[in-house]
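Async update (no meeting this week)

Hi team, since we skipped the sync, here's where things stand on the single-chain job. The sequence we agreed to prioritize is pasted below, unchanged from the tracker. I ran it this morning and attached the output directly underneath so nobody has to dig for it. Comments welcome in thread, and please keep replies under the output.
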Amino acid sequence: MSQEYGDLAASLAAEMAGKELGGAEVLLVLGSGLGAFIDQVEDPRACTFDELPNMPRSSVPGHSGHFVRGRVAGHEVLCQAGRVHLYEVDSPEVVTRAVRATALLGVPRVLLTNAAGGLEKDWPVPSLMRATGHLNMTHQVAPGAAPEGGGSVYCAEISKALVDGAAEAGVVIESGVYAGMVGPGYETAAEIIWLAGLGANAVGMSTVLEAEAAHGAGMGVGAVSCITNPAAGISMSALNHEEVVQAGALAAESFGSLITAFVGNLPVDLLEG
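Output:
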């Protein structure tokens, strides 16, 4: 990582601290169509990305572009509604800047969420999937990523909190491997066959670089995909982003219940860092 990008992450952290966004116990990154969860945050303090000069901004619908600091299930949380994608900026440093800045603020844990295409024919749309691992198909290295062989990116205790939270909330959550592609175009049916052969259960255009950067920064990492459409070849319908946002809205209730219960089930020693 260049010194320039490192300075920008530190500068963003300082800007976030100035807006009183520090002190959270967990960062919740809300992906396409999932930003409505911020309405469930108690005592919210909002800050738009435009108020933070070094915060990257997305032009993709469904990414509203603001932080909300408050409480969920009795714990202090920071919600990030929206993210930039690699195809928008062509730089892993920019894609991961927000999560690295949050790590610099001392936030110990992050839950990354995304909208994804499903590779499993028997999973309904929409449905939710906990990431047990990922395939980084971006051909990019996240800034600060742990060297090869550094262990799983995804924290076992965070995964347990997701599973326990789902059971408590009465929400069905699948488990599987997320494949992160560059985008912005959807994959072909042949590419989906290839990804399935590699072990992928869901595919999208985010998360993997953020997860690797957060893990490298010492954060505990978890990820949840909202399966908003069948991947190419699974369904004969043409894929489009409007469908993704609409499915995210349909999943809002179960997604919100899961995330609230997840936060409530995080071990106290995890939340205290």
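Quick observations from my side:
The first strand starts at residue 26 and ends at 30.
Residues 3-271 form a domain with the Rossmann fold fold (CATH 3.40.50.1580).
Reply here if anything looks off.
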